[in-house]
Amino acid sequence: MTRLLIVGPQGSGKGTQGVRIAEAFGIPTISTGDVFRAAVAEGSELGSQVKAIIESGDLVSDELTSAVVRERLSQDDAERGFLLDGYPRNVTQVMHLEEFLEGRGDELDAVIELSVPRDESIARLSLRAQEQGRTDDTEEVIANRLAIYERETAPILGVYGARGIVVKIDGVGSLDDITARIISALEARGLNRSAAA
Ligand code: ADP
């Protein structure tokens, strides 16, 4: 049972690394950004509730986001652990998650902080905008998302840091090197991927 959270600014590569780490540990990745984008693409009710918000780079309400995550965490495959990507994204969501996990006698094992200098993350995001054409990757929206990260998301690292569960990883390097760094840092904390797989 491995319960992980990956945190990093937009463009830090957390989505890519999150998927790789979850695979290595044999646990599902739960990405709120992916859930919301899929809902928009499907045109579901959730999609219509969040479309305008994600396109402007603002945050979906804490109540709605936490409800979506609780439902996802209640599915069978998340019983043996999970990797959260993009949630919790502020201190209120940290409290919502905690309340939910405590209710089932669980807690996070580690929080992976992927650290990347601001210039590097802006450069990567502009590249992704050209390659993938994500509607929330325009220059103005990117600046908004990074500002929200600094103001609302970075403080959650203080909360988890005080509990001693933050594993800080240098996010500059090749994808494989960074994956290896994360895996060895988690193993050094006694989180074993072979035990989970
Ligand atoms: P990025 O981290 O690159 O901004 P994500 O894929 O994590 O992108 O999220 C895309 C958008 O989905 C966010 O800008 C926000 O509007 C919404 N979103 C994702 N996760 C959350 C969350 N935990 N709380 C509120 N809104 C969220």
Automatic annotation (TrEMBL):
PROSITE patterns: ADENYLATE_KINASE. AMP binds at residues 32, 37, 58-60, 86-89, 93, 134, 145. Keywords: ATP-binding, Cytoplasm, Kinase, Nucleotide biosynthesis, Nucleotide-binding, Transferase. Residues 31-60 are annotated as: NMP. It is found in: Cytoplasm. Belongs to the adenylate kinase family. Consists of three domains, a large central CORE domain and two small peripheral domains, NMPbind and LID, which undergo movements during catalysis. The LID domain closes over the site of phosphoryl transfer upon ATP binding. Assembling and dissambling the active center during each catalytic cycle provides an effective means to prevent ATP hydrolysis. Catalyzes the reversible transfer of the terminal phosphate group between ATP and AMP. Plays an important role in cellular energy homeostasis and in adenine nucleotide metabolism. This is Adenylate kinase. It comes from Microbacterium gallinarum.
